[in-house]
Amino acid sequence: MAETPARKKRQSSRAIQARKAAAERAAAFQAAEAARLDIATQLTLLEQQIADLEDETERQVEALRARREKLAASKRTEADQLVVAMLSSGVNQTEAAQRLGITVDQVRAAKANVEQRSAAERQSTENADGADSASTDAGAADAAGAGSATLPQQQNGQQEPAATGVTQPPGSAA
């Protein structure tokens, strides 16, 4: 009978050692799993940051494209006005094209663009004034026998040429 308690003690020390070894392996497994989870978390965060960078880059590219289009449109408007200024100086379309190094079709297109912009500006001005006041003012001017005239615009202290075919006051530069 004395042997039985000693045997139980040995078994329990073996069991304790086995339990301790299993606990160490489990702790190592958990530490490795925590490290793997941390790596996966870091990768997920980096992927989100990359996506955010791509979104921000696209937003900035779109803003730059819009700015470029606005500036290019402004420069095209200036170029069209210069073509019309050349025409207003008394040269025909062919000579203007030769002097400016562009085609006659480009001269015609520039002239049409300036005329369309002038018409659009007049229309927006009339719409801003209101249909009633614009129609009564135009009716009063027509009844008095006066035609409508468009004067050249001024920008940066320089006088812009008026659109071709528009009535101008006597003594004007065109």
What's this model, at a glance?
With 174 residues, the protein is mainly α.
Give the overall average pLDDT: 79
Structural class call reads: mainly alpha
Question: Helical content, roughly?
Answer: over 70%
Query: How many strand elements?
Result: 2
Q: How much β-strand is present in the residues?
A: under 5%
Overall geometry comes to rod-shaped
Low-confidence stretches: 138-152, 154-168
Total helical elements: 4
Profile the largest sheet: 2 strands, antiparallel
Distance between the termini: 132 Å
Order of helices and strands: HHHHEE
Strand order of the largest sheet: 1-2
Rg is: 42 Å
Characterize the structure shown:
This protein has a two-stranded antiparallel sheet with strand order 1-2. Helix 1 crosses helix 3 and helix 3 crosses helix 4. The chain is rod-shaped and about 115 Å long. It contains four helices and two strands. The chain has 174 residues and is mainly α.
